[in-house]
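User: what does the whole thing look like in 3D?
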Amino acid sequence: MAATKSSNVRLESSTESIKKPHRIVINDKVESILQSKKNANEIFDLLEYLQSDKEKEVVRGVNACGQLFCDLLERGDLFVGKLPKEEELLEGERSADDKYRMFLRYRYNSCIEQLLENMGHKVYQVKESSLCMLMKFASTEGKFPLQKLDWCEHYSFPRELLEAVVQRLLSDSEDMAMLISRFQEFLEMDDVRYYVMCSLRDYVAKVMDKNKGAVMPTFQNNVFALLSNINMPSQESELTNFMATQGAKHGDWKAAKFKEHRRVFERTWLMFLKYKLPGSMYKKVLVIIHDSILPHMSEPTLMIDFLTAAYEIGGAISLLALNGLFVLIHHHNLEYPDFYKKLYNLLEPSVFHVKYRARFFHLANLFLSSTHLPVYLVAAFAKRLSRLALTAPPNALLMLLPFICNLIRRHPSCRVLIHRPSAEEPCNDPYSMEEEDPAQCRALESSLWEIKTLQNHYHPDVAKAAQAINQPLSEIEEDISKRLELSTFGLMTKDLKSAPSNVPLEFDTVSQLLKGSRDVLGAHFCLE
Amino acid sequence: MGKPQKKKNVADKVRKTKTSTEIKNNPFEVKVNRKKFDILGRKGKHDVGLPGVSRSKAINKRKNTLLKEYKQKGKANKFIDRRFGEYDTKMAPEDKILQRFSMERQRTLEKKDMYNLNEDEELTHYGQSLAEMEKLNDIVDSDSDSEEKGLLSAELTASHFGGGGGLLRKKGPGEKGDKGRSRQELIDELIIKSKQEKRERQTQKEESHVLTEKLDQEWKSIQGLLSHKGSRAQSQDQTEKPKLDDYDMMVRELGFEMKAQPSEKLKSEEELAREERERLQNLEADRLRRMRGEAAESSKKKAVHFSADDLNDGFILDKEDKKMLAYKDGKWSVGEEKEEKEDVEGEEGESGEEEEVEEDDEEAEEDSEDGDDSDDDEEDSDEDAHSDLESEQGSAREEEELEKDEEELPAASASCQLSEEELKAQQEAAKAELPYTFKAPDNTEELKDMLQGHSPLIQRLILERTLKSNHPSLAVGNKLKLQKMFGFLLEYMGELASSKPPELNTVNILTPQLYGLCQLFPAAACKAMQTLLGDSAHGIEETVEVTGRAPFPGLDTLIYLKITALLFPTSDFRHPVTIPAFLCISQALTQCPVTSLQDVTCGLVLCCLALEYVTLSRRLFPEVVNFLLGVLHLAVPDKTTLGFSVVSPFKQVGRNAELLVLNTPEATEGWSRTPLRLSAVQGLQLHSDLEKDHYRLSLLNTCLDLVKRCAVLYKDTTSIFHIFQPIRAALAHLPLKNYPAPLQELHREVLEALPETPAQQLPLVFDKKKPIPLKLLTPKIVQVLDYGKKRGNTKEQREQERLKHKYKKEFKGALREIRKDTRFLAREKLSDVMKRDSERKRKVKELMGSLSTQEGEWKALKKMKRK
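Assistant: Here's the predicted 3D structure for the full assembly of 1395 residues, as structure tokens:
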């Protein structure tokens, strides 16, 4: 019946649309449906619009449907309770009113389906309006539930609808970051957040299990986008913003409990992190882990597996994992075997060039600020850092050299690294860079010749900083926190700002661009 | 209470009351103080004392002061002195006196005494202050006075000597009516009249005197202006007046004649060369000092450089401007004549004044005149021409030569690129159409309009002429204009470099101009260059922040960096331009990912520049080594077993990690070492695989050579082995057998230059400090040369000792005085008591006496009654 009707309607609408603009036509239809039950079949026309090719029409259709069904919901014109099958609709002995309401309920369901489908539409506007309308339905449904409240403590929340929305948001083929950031505004509401997390957890588990744990970059990206958009409240009293409020007891409702929120949040993250992640995802997670994940977990130590795994990966990911580990070690008494050994092995030439350099050295400074560290360890760190300093850019060097000096200051027995008056014979450097165990690398028997070399660095500040080891170091440690974020341009501005009083000039006269006493460029390049 | 200080003047007073000689001669008054030692030549103050005198003095004094106070003790009434300022301690006594005096004067002025003519104190004579006249500074009116001296007016004589009759008769006809006037009145009138006359004369004289003085003043004020003219006038006077003594003239001439100054010795070639060498050595030493980072401020030596062809004589080529410069009289016309003559001579035999461009022209012309010399002649024709010129310009100065040398080179280079005919034609054309003066451009667009469309050489000519016609010595604003022009020129060069295809040849030719401008205005040049470099670095920084990666800087930035190396000393420890330039290179080498052969080229250009920068100072540039390692890494085909790791901007493995791996091993044939083209930075058109491979080989060749240079440069650094260890590893992985022979040879050389084993080093120790000497406990022995004098180490100590001594003395003296005071007071009190007692006794006695007489009388009466 529906099929035939719809074909008729399409014909009609197409003919009508020639005469009138769509907006007016649509509005008229909504009006007529709302006014009289006779016109109920015009709903099919509206649903038609949702499948239109033209995005404007779709958006208008979405709005119209929204208006229509919200009004119907408020009027209670939709059938409440368990719905019989559509085929059986006419068979049973029901009043015409019931039939009408069931019919509307079916149309409502098909409208939701269509909207969910539209969330995968090409055009962002369509996606956005569909999403908004679905959430509007959700909130109206929350107020006027479509299920019968059969027992009093059960709170009716349109979970199925929300689940469907979340599943659509977590597309495995399309990057939904934009839509998810739009969705964030709904996540501000506490019950929505709670149920989103619940459904997220289940859905992730389902999808990943189906995929046998293989990496799904797009899906996982979407999951991460959604998860990282969740702003957890920090205390119970902040749980005030609810979408569905029936004015009943909040106490028994899980979504109203702060503990439950935390538990679900924790479970969701753990579920997400349980599976193998793409490399970039590790970085993204690790960047936010210490301030937006760990504080909201009821049992942060559960993260230890993930963090350890990340720390073992090496490279930038290990650097980032340090931060989370630090929180666990510092606040949750985590005992991490061979932590310093691993930290030592993280020191690679690339450490000065990665984006997270400042964060890494900030943490390394914290870890190495303990005065209870063995001397061999500190010496190994100092020596390794100074060896690496041979490849570092000047902005890193300006931070690194005081860092090394601070290490020696904290551990006076490391002074032999820069002052060994006993030995008089020249010797080879006994330090072994390849040795992974700081205890075996013989750093204590070595000297920091590398810093001596850096005294001849081209940047005057670096050369000055390196010259600090020529004299006994002063007692007070230098503050490196300001230098952590120093960039090359920042370094340059210092020189650019100072107004020169006297500018020395080259006295060798210039005859040509590529000719001069010290020309190198001219030997390999020509002016063409 | 006591007045401890004995004042000398008081003592004198006391002494004066008696005749001092009398006292001194009285042996009972004198007490001789015994001396312990008799020292020759010392005059003791206290040899002889007069105890009696001093005691009486002291007693008197106490009576005047202490006793009075004592007697006033407990008394409420007091005498108040109401004179002005009597109790005002703040007022100086002089002021007090003055004030009192003026008050006194006011009081006298207030009373209007009509008969007191001499009220005002100033005494005058003829209306002039006597006091001033006494100074006798007015001697001007002596002559005029003499004329009138003794001359009495007719009226006066008449009245004095003609008697009353004449006077009456004279007055009679005019004023008969006032017969009532007495003789006394008439005489008064007369006196008044004569006085008036005198006064008038006096004022007249004064006026004329004032005028004369004013004239004198005015003359003095303009005398300075006319000084030399005056001297000339004087000399004219001298010639006019031959009466002046010849001898005197001779003497004066001899006296004033300037002693003949020894002229500068003509310097020989060797001396000139030596001076030049010394100058360069000085500059070099200065550079080294700055390189070590020592304070360069102390010596404010500035290389006196001017634009490449500036002769610093303000000479300008064009005639209009010449008029501005010309002198007012005589000389101007001479100059023009000379100019005309030169024109006639066809620009030969000019002196050093002529512009350098013209010289170039001449060279060209002469070349053409020389005719069709053989080719090899033509090659050094420039030099020949130059030497010819030099011989013509016998008086060419040293600086000019230097400048000429600067000038010669670009000309020579240009002539390499342009054939002689073309050059000549161009210059002819230029001479024909180019104006001689150019307005200094106000922005880059104007400069571009001015220069664009001309050939490089003409552009240089235009620039030269612009510089000439806007030389700072010509007008006030020119300096600013030229300062700005440096920035414009720099920007223009950047535009030339970034245009497609880049006009690097023009840049090359304009560089000496830039150098000249830079030498003129170092501060402005510094600022302009800083801005450009800063902008470039800022751009890269921002792009990196936004997108995480940035493209390599364009050719214009590379050219700026190159120009920086030419204009500023890159070896300085600290320099406002070169250090940012270093950082610019560093930034590009670490933050710009290498994605194409073009990027590799750009990186290698930057490496070349970096090496240039540090050639002299041999400073460590880790980024260059990192980058070269990365480039070598790009050429390693098998990345599985690497013994090294590369750092940003390179990736260990990845899409672009095999950029320099040869596609076909056969590509080695046909490859020859050719210089790379700078324009490759902007874009590469390599069509076939073979071309690409050849280009890769060229890049590798450059890279290997740079590694070799690096190795040589840093061979003395302590950690050279560790610095180059990764490079050694990378070199070992290169597929050598695919490379042509020259590359293999270079590879071998590089390996030789790199150290095979780490050098043995001494462990680090702190710098040796000068040991602090121990404290010594042996006594300090000071030789005393003059005994008897107070010895002290320092002036302060001596002063302190003196004060301490003085204090002690004063303290003792004060104690003594107080004791004496109390003793005196006690004595006084005692005498008072005694006096009172004796009085009482006397009175008692008197009373007793009277009573006894009474008693006696009464008894007598009684006896009488009884009887």
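In plain terms: The two ends of chain A are 80 Å apart (CA to CA). The first helix of chain A runs from residue 2 to 19.
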